[in-house]
Structures are given as structure tokens and as C-alpha cells.
Amino acid sequence: MRRLVGFIVIFFPSSLNAFCGDFGLGVAPGFGAIDWMSKSPYIFAITLLSFAPLIFFVTRFVRKLGDA
Amino acid sequence: MLNFITNFLRFEGIPTKVVIITAVMSYLLQINAIVAGNPLYIIALYTLAPWIPLVLFEGVWKVKNYSIVAVLALFTILQIGHFAEHLIQVVQLNYLDGTVACPPPIDSIANYNNALSLGIRDENLLPTYLSVDVIAKAGVDGFPILDAAGNYITGPAACAIFGQLDLEIVHLVWELIGYFGTALVLFYFVHNVWLLIALICLSWHGVEHLTITYFYYFDQTPILPGFKQLWATVQLDGNKFMAVPAGIQEDMLNFYQAGGKFGILANDGMLEQLTGFNGMPGRPVLHMGYNLAITIPTVIGCLVELRKIRSSYLEESFSALSEEELTKLTTACTTKTMRKGDMIFEEGDPSISAYLIKSGAVKVVKNYGSSEEQTVGHLLAGELLGEMALLDGKDRSATVICEKAGSYLVIPAKTFRDLLNPQSGDYQSEATALFIKRLADVRFAINRELSDK
Predict the structure, then answer these.
(1) Partner B contacted by A47 (CB < 8 A)
(2) pTM of the predicted model as reported, rounded to 2 decimal places
């Protein structure tokens, strides 16, 4: 499980970039034309950071539910 | 049915007189602010300001008396307030024809000069630095749109009540308060699935705000050509000002301005810019939705815990009662404050409740105010009071006066009798009944001794 999470963490931004790059989705077209894909590692890190504590609480909730 | 909510929301640690004086002050300040023609946020500030110290003191009191559930209630109230701001913004935007220019333009020197150059302002009326209340709609050229009669089409600044706080850092701080607050109370209320749902929503909301704030602070390099809306400010009446569009100025936009401020899912945000899809709600509506998704489970989670509320003081005083019995007793009792010289009850009054002194001290006086006045006892924190009249079914046999400021719990007669009768079913603790009876026996004995003298 830890290896899987590690794998996703390491390869998610680059695979997303490759995937989106194939479809030409990396850079927003028209107005703005900003390069969102260059931000994907940050957004991914922020997502992990925000959801990490939730894993602790969900695990604890399920364990307590089992005890009850 | 909702007794437990009304009981909890009542000011318990603040004397009633102080609450009434504060309410009157708040009301007068509000009227004064309205009459002076102030904008909505100043009226709201005047109205709320007198309540701030009371709410703080009461909050501390509640945390002391009800422990962590009071913290949960505080977060819930903050969350409801936060949601209300988002809701007001959406109403201003969609139903009052408002304009999202947040924080609202200020009657600054630049906006004053723009108004002078457009010839729509008296130069003697100098900048006030107040936020505008009303905004005139702008066309694509950045100048006002006029109706058939040649008037501006106006609406409110769609930034809720306290639009001056509509800053990225404030949004992030509110989100983090909710996030860490919910996480904190989840440590205690492990089984509360509603709080867990709230935390899931807060986590995603956190992703949006951390991303937006990241762009705001770390992507400031101007990278794309764009336009900046200019404003001119004019006085309406009193201290109310209107922002009139004064054209657009070419400017370079940074990542935040070019779409980062819309975040991931909002209209013109990451999803839409990357996919070309155009159907997501605007940021005000989306974030109201996020907050609704957070507020509903938070409120339900809080109600679930409030139903089980227990006074820490009663827990200590009646330790033999079960958790459910303590919850029932907490809901049945009310706390009152007393100041030196206050009369708790008078000799001859009908007996409708017993009292438990939480803090401070009282004296028991016979024939109060007459030449035969005699102090027959002093009672301190932790002692029961007024139980004798309930037991013998007679009127009050003495007057009780506060000697040292503090507070006491009022135990209604029925609750008190239920406590004494474990067989009645409401409170089944023999030990508690015995404890109260012994206290009463001692009091009866002292009273008899005094009567014999």
C-alpha cells in the first residue's frame, strides 16, 4: 500500500503531464493562456497535504466502529 | 424538544442586567449609524461591537462548564457566520444585480481624481477612504452602462457585509479555522460521522484555497497582457458612496489574475481553462456551495453532541449519576450569576426550586430587615440551598443574600424530587438521593437547634 502511494506521489505529475500533453490540454487556450500543468506538482502536493489528516480520522472512525 | 439548544445559547455566565444594557447600547449605536447615513458594514460593526466582550467571556465560561462541546459549538457558530457571508454575496450578485469587485472600491485619492476628471464630483468633498456601497455596471469599454433614461444601472458591491475582508488570506484563515477546529473536536467525538463528513468537505475546500493563495503569494510575475478596471467615487447620501466605472487601463496580469483566483473548479478556473468546458458555477456560487456542504454536517454534528451535553460542575457534584442522567440534569438546570447584596429568595416566598452554589458565598437570614434580624448560616460553593422548603412542602423559612459574587444552579422542584426518588425512573442513583437527604438532614438539625435557642 505504501509503495503504491509512493509510486503515485512520484509519478502522478509527470504522467498527468504526459497524458494531458498528448491531448493538448497542458496550456489553457485563448484568454489567459496560462500554463496550468507547470502548477500540477504544487496542486498535487497541496491535495495530499489537505487529505492526509483525513486518512487518520477515517481509519480511527472505522476502528472505533469495529470496537463498538 | 430543543430545550438543550436554547439552554446552551442563553447567556449563563453574564448577569442579565449586563446583557440588557449591552442590547440597548447595540440598538442605540445601530440607530445612530443608520441615521448618520453610514454604509452597511459600518452599521453592522456598530451593532456587533458591544457584543464582542460578552461573547468572549461567555465563550470562556461555557468551555469551563461544558468542556469541549462548547468549542464545537463555537466553531459551528463561526461556520454559520461564514456561510451567511457567502450566501449574502450570492444574493447580492444574483438577485440584487450586484457587481463582484471585492474588496469594494474605496473612496481613495485615485478614485477621487478619476471622478474629478469625469466631472461627476465636487472637488471640495475630499476622499473619505470609506468603502462604496453601490457600484454602477460597467460595459466592455470599462465605462458605465446607462438605461433608457440615461441613468446608471446600479447594484450593491457583491462582497457580502464585511467585503473589506474579502481577501485571499482571510478566506484561507477561515478555512483553516474550520479545518483545524473540526479536526480538534474529532479527537474527542470519534463516533461523530457528521463531523467526519464536514472534515472531508473542508479538506477539498482547503485544496481550493491553498492553491489559490499559493498563486496569490508566489505567482506575482506579470506574464500576460490584460486590462484593469478603473473607478470614480461619488457621494450618494450621508457616508454612502458609489463607484462609477471610469474606463479600463492596459496592464500585465500575473497567474493569479489570469485565472488562478478562480481556483480549480470555478468558472474560468483550472478545469474550464484546461478542458474548454464552460458550465461551472462562478466562484461566489461555488464557494457558497462548499460552505453549505461544510455547514450542514457541522451543524448536525454539533446538535448530536449538544444533546449529550453535561455540565462539568454537575459531573463533579453528582458523580454517582450516569452520563444520560447528567445530561438530563444539565438540561433541566439553569445557571444564574449573583453579585454581593443580591437576594436569591426571601422568607415566605413559595418554594419552586433548590439551588446549588457553584462559586461565591451566601448568608441565610431570618427576619430580614426587621429589628429581630438574625444571620443563621453561611453557605459556600458546593452547598445545596433551598432544599428544606421543597422537602417539607412549606414556604421559604429564611432569606438568602449573596455575600460574595459568584454563580448558582437552579434545580427545578420536580427535578429535585426526582433526584430524591430513585424509584421514579428519571434518576436512578441511590447514592445521589442519599447524599442530598444527608445534606438536608444536617440542615434540618441546625435549624431545629436555632429554633430551640
Answers:
(1) yes
(2) 0.79
